[in-house]
Design goal:
The complex is a heterodimer of chains A (about 240) and B (about 210). Chain A is α/β, with parallel strands linked by helices. Helix content of chain A is about 35%, strand content about 25%. Chain A has one domain: TIM Barrel (Alpha-Beta Barrel). With about 210 residues, chain B is an alpha/beta fold. Chain B has a single domain, classed as Rossmann fold (3-Layer(aba) Sandwich). In chain B, the strands form 2 sheets. Chain B has a 9-stranded mixed sheet with strand order 2-1-3-4-12-11-10-7-8. In chain B, strand 10 and strand 11 form a beta hairpin. The chains are: A alpha/beta (about 240), B alpha/beta (about 210).
Chain lengths: ~240, ~210
């Protein structure tokens, strides 16, 4: 059985790490996270913060690729196929598309060029109350004029379009075990985007999620693993 | 000196970084003319089978690699590189591989999540006089296809079904795992494979490979 992957998420802007203390260069931070027991790293670009242009996207990705001996992904707003190509060619193992890119022709074009191994999509699901006596349902909001969609139907559509993994956040997390259980049947890897509570993340992992992505900083990966090991989850040490 | 084949736009950044960290001399070569005059030739992924083969043909590697192997040069295929060294792949049923390692690469599954993207325990199933054994380690995989194990397969992992992790025929060696993405354990294994294939690091590298 594969190990459940423990993945810190590092927020960046202008190529610089946004975390309060520590080095600003993503490669230096990544090295630290690897030593702390990470099974992979997600870099999440937050537009419009930090000093712009300190390192270009291609520069810092090349630096990370040359010095980090773990897989890593870039989560960003990819407005053009070329942006995504640049990230993968610079050495990112995966790109994580937002709902805008995933609902545009970019996903299908990237699938044809790179295959599903290198493509993931972020899905932010929320529990919507249903009228009358019907049970609540998990929904997603997509950009543009599209109405809200059923979260599971949207994820199945993404799988068909070429996504190799879903980075799934659920609000509220405390009620999401069933969502992760249903998502696990879709046939692609599901990463639980955690708000930072290991107990809730453990529920998602026990219900079929393959990995947990959590904010880098407050707890190390080893700390996460020690907490999750108590729930009997298979982990890599 | 190690020759790292670069086919397509993406460079083998992490593998190059790993070789540098381990103290091996290497050269990135887009064409056979750029290859080092001697030493190991490494073909690596990630990528898709058909376009990767097409790029190798366009650059002249497709004719050169079997000739280099016939001349006794060691060849190492990592991830997609192993698929290309094999006879063919279900990923492109009309195409063929280089045939340096026997077998057809087949799709994993059915009934498992695809792609197989994660850390799997690896088990040694037979030994090789030179190559290192895999003992109880976790290695990282990122693939949808793999060779099926045979009696000559050196190590296996399981994703729905057992698949070959390390194969060797003569001086052609293939590894399905992304060793350069498998942390210190992967680097230590890679280091020992490179030494077994005749490369000598210029500086020492110490990592736990047990």
């Amino acid at each position: 059985m594969d190990a459940k992957r423990i993945i810190p998420v590092l927020e960046l802007s202008g190529g610089q790490v946004l975390a309060g203390r520590g080095p600003r260069h993503p490669a230096e931070w990544a090295g630290r996270l690897a030593l702390e027991g990470a099974d992979g790293i997600i870099f999440r670009e937050i537009p419009g913060r930090g000093q712009p242009g300190r390192w270009t996207r291609a520069e810092w990705i090349r630096d990370v690729a040359g010095s980090l001996f773990l897989s890593f992904a870039l989560e960003a707003s990819f407005g053009r196929l070329r942006d995504l190509e640049e990230a993968l060619e610079a050495g990112a193992d995966r790109v994580i598309l937002d709902a805008g890119a995933a609902s545009s022709p970019i996903l299908a074009a990237a699938f044809a060029r790179f295959g599903r191994q290198r493509l993931a999509v972020a899905v932010d699901a929320f529990l919507a109350p249903s009228p009358l006596e019907a049970p609540s349902s998990w929904r997603v909001a997509l950009p543009g004029p599209s109405p809200e969609r059923d979260a599971l139907a949207w994820m199945a559509e993404l799988e068909q379009a070429g996504a190799g993994e879903i980075l799934l956040s659920a609000a509220p997390e405390s009620e999401a075990a069933g969502l992760f259980q249903d998502s696990a049947r879709l046939g692609l890897s599901i990463v639980c985007r955690s708000g930072g509570d290991p107990a809730l993340a453990a529920d998602a992992l026990l219900h079929g999620a393959d990995a947990v992505a959590f904010p880098a900083g407050p707890r190390t990966s080893q700390h996460w693993k020690s907490l999750l090991a108590d729930r009997g989850l298979p982990l890599r040490y | 000196m190690i020759t790292l084949i670069q086919s397509g736009a993406a460079g083998p950044h992490t593998l190059a970084g790993a070789l540098g960290r381990m103290g091996f001399e290497y050269r990135v070569a887009r064409t056979p003319e750029e290859a080092a005059p001697e030493g190991l030739v490494v073909l690596t992924g990630p990528g898709l089978f058909e376009p990767a083969c097409a790029a190798l043909k366009a650059a002249g590697w497709w004719r050169e690699l079997p000739q280099l192997a016939a001349d006794g040069r060691p060849v190492l295929g990592l991830d997609l590189g192993l698929h290309i060294l094999a006879e063919g792949s279900e990923e492109d049923p009309r195409g063929s591989g280089l045939g340096l390692i026997p077998g057809i690469v087949r799709r994993l599954g059915p009934g498992v999540k695809m792609p197989h993207w994660g850390w799997s325990p690896v088990r040694q199933v037979s030994t090789h006089p030179l190559l290192p054994e895999v003992r109880g380690g976790w290695l990282f995989f990122a693939h949808c296809h793999a060779l099926e194990p045979t009696s000559e397969t050196l190590s296996i992992a399981v994703h729905g079904r057992p698949f070959a992790v390390m194969e060797a025929r003569g001086r052609a060696v293939g590894v399905q795992a992304r060793l350069e993405k498998s942390g210190n354990y992967g680097l230590a294994l890679l280091d020992r494979i490179l030494v077994a294939l005749g490369e000598v690091p210029q500086s020492g590298f110490e990592a736990d490979c047990n």
